[in-house]
Amino acid sequence: MDYVSIKRISEHYATRYVDLDTIEKAIKSINKGKAEDVFGISIENVLYAGQQFKLFLHKLINRMFQDRVLPDIIKTGLLSPVFKNKGDKNDAKYYRGITVLPILLKIIEFILRIDLRSGSLKLQSILQKGFTANTSPLNAAIILEEVYREYMDKKLPFYIVLLDAKSAFDVVVLKMLLRKVYISGTDPSSWLLIDEIHKNTESRIKWSTEISEKFSVLQGVKQGGLLSADLYKVYIEDLLSTFENTTSGCEIGETLINAVACADDVAIVSENPHELQYLVNIAAQYSEDHHYLLQPQKSVVIQVQPSNRKKSEDPVRIYINNNAMPISDKSPHLGILRSTTSQKTQDATVEQNITKSRRAAYSLMSAGMHGENGLDPSTAIQLFKTFVQPILTYGLEVILPTSKNLLKLETFQKKILKQILSVPISAPDPSVYIMSGILPIEAQIDQKSLNLFNNICNQNENHLEKKIARRQLIAKNQESNSWFIAIKRVLFKYDLQSPIVLLNDPPTKYSWKKSVRLAIDHYWKNALIQKSCTYKSLKYLGTSNISPGKCHTLLSIGNTSDPTREAVRISVKLKVITDTYILQSHRSRYNLNETPTCKLCDTDIEDRSHFLLTYSEEGKLYSIEVVPTWTEKEYQKKKKIGSI
């Protein structure tokens, strides 16, 4: 059925009525704090405009739905070129265009997306993990990770092809797309409005403070549109269905895996080079039929070996449209740097995360996240948790780093936290976690991996990840490299339920998160308290009120009359409490010419108890019977003649 016939049929269907609750839900669901549209309007303007405006918006949208026509003025997008963080900044091909749509069109797209998903999700391939409710890109990553681990157990090599489609969203043929949308079961009245959205569309480019003239957009779906990812998934659905129906690929038990996809990001796997070429040919033919280009120089082949000791075989030659694909040692896939072995994948991903986190941390230094004389520690720690920590731990719940890589991550985190807390690098490690409320990297990865496992448990039985989980937990022993066996050990570590029990009767997302958080907090709280007891320097650091996730009371400035002054004093407090504030007792340990005796009283050893309990606020001694109280003039005179 062609586009014209579909349109004629759809015009005979009744129009859809949109209730006020749906419009309010759409307004609340659109992300806040984003750029203004071409008219200078943001979602906050609509959100706080009042009930009267929402009633007017309700009438306006229903009139558009009734007439099945959208005014051209709301089809003008504001396109901002965003650098891809690679290549030459002066070359346009290293920029990605992100379009900011008018707010009214975003609200309409949200409503239409509900109708689109009601049909498309029923037909969606189990290989597609992108932009789908209750899944994430990591669901696709875990499938590929388990293939790595399965072939480590088998001691066999396999091959990965990572496909790169040039400007995938921008070259979609609209009539072909709309035909697929109709076949997916989308409501005909909504189909007409999706068609209307892509008619007479225009765009303007924003560069710095300059905005270009309008120009027409005749093809593609807009990157940044609420509908765009869902529409593209429909566009390539037939490709994934074809992969599902082939018998080529890798096997985990009786489960065949030959591809995983996250929107336009497609990875193909096979243990046989000839089968791999066959699967690539299917993808190449589909791209030709649907008028998008698979780039042979950016689509790469990775030859995966079961271990670092295994010698690489002769390079395989895989072709796209008679062009040889490059063989790569490592290439990014869904934020994880995939390499020729599982260990090399871990090493490369950890190094990448540390590099990105360091860059993020340094970018916040100018905002005051540099420790002493900067923001107060509580605020700086919150910045770290918001902007640095997610980058540092991204994807690690999938690859589950070894102790060597955990040490690298831990070292980086401790260094940043010690700088924020203004304590020297020699400060005991438990004190950093106790004062900041941040758990060690190992605990963070355990928490994220257990939450990912719960997500898999809540998938439908026909989903690949759940099939694999059930098979591996039954068939594999404790020596297996399987990700699910590793999760079994983590569950045992925190005295949580058996993985088979969780698969058969999965708890809800929020109840599981709470259970995991409480178990991990309890485990690591006890571990940190026990470890801190081995440090004599931490005997004055109160550990009874430790609360993971919350800063120590020492860092609080909210209850003081002068928060600014208190923020400056905190760094001294933390040095004293961790025994890193330099006193005479410290100097004497490293310099034979120094004595531990206090130079002010010339009687007692200058340690923490002497420093805190003997000196008054004015810096004078108030132990009158033992040592006379000197004036500043007398003190300087005695100091000059060397009697103190």
Automatic annotation (TrEMBL):
Reverse transcriptase domain sequence ranges: 63-338
SUPFAM superfamilies per UniProt: DNA/RNA polymerases (SSF56672)
Top-level taxon of origin: Eukaryota
InterPro entries (UniProt xref): DNA/RNA_pol_sf (IPR043502), RT_dom (IPR000477)
Listed name of the protein: Reverse transcriptase domain-containing protein
